Predict the structure.
Amino acid sequence: MALNHLNLTVPDVARTRAFFETYFGFRCVVDRGRDALAVLADESGFILSLNNFDQADKVEYPGAFHIGFMQESRERVDELYQRLKSDGFDMEPPREFHGAWTFYFRAPGGFLVEVLHQHRRDGGR
């Protein structure tokens, strides 16, 4: 079994779409309506859909809700951190946590994103 897709409701579909395209290599495969829906795909075929069907100005996600992006190396985590930081994202530097080299930050749309390199198979448990 494989995770097929994730749907996120975000207040600004275009801005969140640009974020995923710029930093995580997603490409848009469907764009419908003015700021209503964007369907993105990554190189593995995973689908991420972004919507604002209710035209919400703000979306609240539960505090611990987040999405994680595994990187192939600790250096790649550091590179992405530096790129995001230089583009104005506010976040703590990468650190060792749960068997990974990781950092978290708020993405456009208000949800939490984790970028990590998992170097322990047991996840630090």
Summary: The chain has two domains: 1-53, 65-125. Helices lie at 13-24, 33-36, 74-86. The first helix runs from residue 13 to 24.
